[in-house]
Amino acid sequence: MTSTGTAPAPAGLVAALDIGGTKIAGALVDDEGRIRLRARRATPAAEDGGNVMAAVAEVLDDLRSSPLWAEVRGVGIGSAGPVDRAAGAVSPVNIPGWRGYPLRERVGERVGGLPVELIGDGAAIAAAEHWVGAARGSSDALCMVVSTGVGGGLVLGGRVRQGSTGNAGHIGHISVDLDGDPCPCGARGCVEGLARGPAIARRALENGWRPDPGADASAVAVAAAARAGHPAAVASFARAGRALAASIAAVAALVEIEVAVIGGGVAGAGEVLFAPLREALPQYATLSFTRGLRVVPALTGPDAGLIGAAAAALGRLEA
């Protein structure tokens, strides 16, 4: 029988899965958040749901083949969403073959009845940063990932707050431009459409930036151009920073966070992103209880999803 999220695994090792549209990562993680063993497969996101699950099974089988598996006491899954915690199901926007897919049950079958915890990838990021990252010691925090999409999770009162379905903190779909471009979610002007990596690259291209011959037109390349002072590249990151500032300020006004932690590939641009974000934030965080809000880079990097999934399996989300 698989778990519904109430019984933490005993201290020791847990298995963690981080499932997204491009990769399925797995790890064995100890009760101090240290990764002891890794496995990985590409996500066959364009294929049917059975083939995606087969890739998950291969990752689990790699972990199970280790002698360390004998110490594993539970499994945590951080998945792209939306997720349905109660049903243990997932419907990732970027994995069309999974709609209402019973992921917790399928993983439970694969691991011989060990308890399995399922959380959304935003909650996993929040759990990781609150446990061992930049939000450690903070009672109230927003933890974000800015990459090919924009997602996040909330820590309130010292606990990761997932919401009734497991999707709380999904900041990427706060609208910051009421007359903005349509978003695949159905709304307009979502922060994801302004701050995600492909949007930054598209805006720079539209305004005259061009990648070097043979290079990709990526946000990484735009960041390099911005550091060199290219005006279209600088302006594109400034626009993304303002969009993020507006959304972060909205969250702060609603739930009184003290810190916003930002990770993901776009955040890897460093001050190219953080400088305009911090400059714009006081224009939006104007209320007395939001003015002290700090914005800091994440510390758990690409392992955030794995560490957060492990935190769920160890019962740390309720700590």
TrEMBL record:
SUPFAM superfamilies on file: Actin-like ATPase domain
Domain of life: Bacteria
Cited Pfam families: ROK
InterPro entries per the UniProt record, alphabetical: ATPase_NBD, ROK, ROK_cs
PROSITE patterns per record: ROK (PS01125)
Family according to the record: Belongs to the ROK (NagC/XylR) family.
Protein name: ROK family protein
